[in-house]
Amino acid sequence: xxxxxxxxxxxxxxxxxxxxxxxxxxxxxxxxxxxxxxxxxxxxxxxxxxxxxxxxxxxxxxxxxxxxxxxxxxxxxxxxxxxxxxxxxxxxxxxxxxxxxxxxxxxxxxxxxxxxxxxxxxxxxxxxxxxxxxxxxxxxxxxxxxxxxxxxxxxxxxxxxxxxxxxxxxxxxxxxxxxxxxxxxxxxxxxxxxxxxxxxxxxxxxxxxxxxxxxxxxxxxxxxxxxxxxxxxxxxxxxxxxxxxxxxxxxxxxxxxxxxxxxxxxxxxxxxxxxxxxxxxxxxxxxxxxxxxxxxxxxxxxxxxxxxxxxxxxxxxxxxxxxxxxxxxxxxxxxxxxxxxxxxxxxxxxxxxxxxxxxxxxxxxxxxxxxxxxxxxxxxxxxxxxxxxxxxxxxxxxxxxxxxxxxxxxxxxxxxxxxx
Length: 420
Prior knowledge:
It is a single chain. This protein has twelve helices and 18 strands. By secondary structure, the chain is an alpha/beta fold. Strands 5-6-9-10-11-12-17-18 form an eight-stranded parallel barrel, surrounded by eight helices. The chain has a four-stranded antiparallel beta sheet with strand order 7-8-16-13, with no helix packed on it. The chain is globular and about 70 Å long.
């Protein structure tokens, strides 16, 4: 392991301090920036990323959920080489969190042996472990891995005092940043928690104001996809002082109905409830949401130290490259870890480096956001194609109009207009 470098610098003056944490100023940059360097592979392109003053050896982050549920598994993640770990979401009162079993259901591809898992639903709640236990384990992790990035995920009711208390107590463990769960799609909406806040921009604005007035470490707001325009809450979170946004959390879903029992899955005593959908089937939706946020951030927050963490169906290094090409600084993996294990990060890193080598990219920043400029409106696509035809005077593949479709050649004609 490379040598440890840990600096905490006061950006608004000349004082340098290694322990003191103070609330963020009203300026965009946090009052303190923690530069933390960890080991990384020396061969191949540089995978390290610096985001909101935090330095990660690679962009792969354990997403909040079962893979970050206790000290043992988070330690394993660090040992295997993940760039950062986000612990499972905690709240002050875990006694109200009661999970059930079974709480997962899978969607398989229709062919293949063994059947490929392409979709995953969970009805799992946030951490049901005592808050003090989670605090102790996060503190222990930071003591044992001071050069690694540990992010606490927190969620509270609509109560300013509760938010201030949880922030203060969590920061005392030494965590490097906070991710705010504004996006859990199921469980406790009646307490105005999770997506109940993320779907209400007025409520979100107020709560983000409370959080950023108290927090002294970078804050990422985790966005829900269960909303018409995800750029609206993302914009508000950044305007209210959050250093970053994470997207997406799971998609509200019903996995299916067992046609033998006529009961929904996952079945708990014959009953179920809608849950969060993840795994590779959600990736196209996640990419669209990340693209929208990436374009908004590029247009409205250019030059500011704000970040985007992409989430949704990442299981390969190429999947990660897609999110980075749409502006993501980091890429979170949760369900992928549950399916492939903690050691999967090595494969992710090698595949991402292979992509970078193929395009002669030396660093993540060389290609981050490079594909955003290629998204436009359908009207503009029509204009561009018309101009290209006129300029090149070339014949397009495919059909010029709907009247050219024929019944006998329908499949082949369809193929002439597919781009990949």
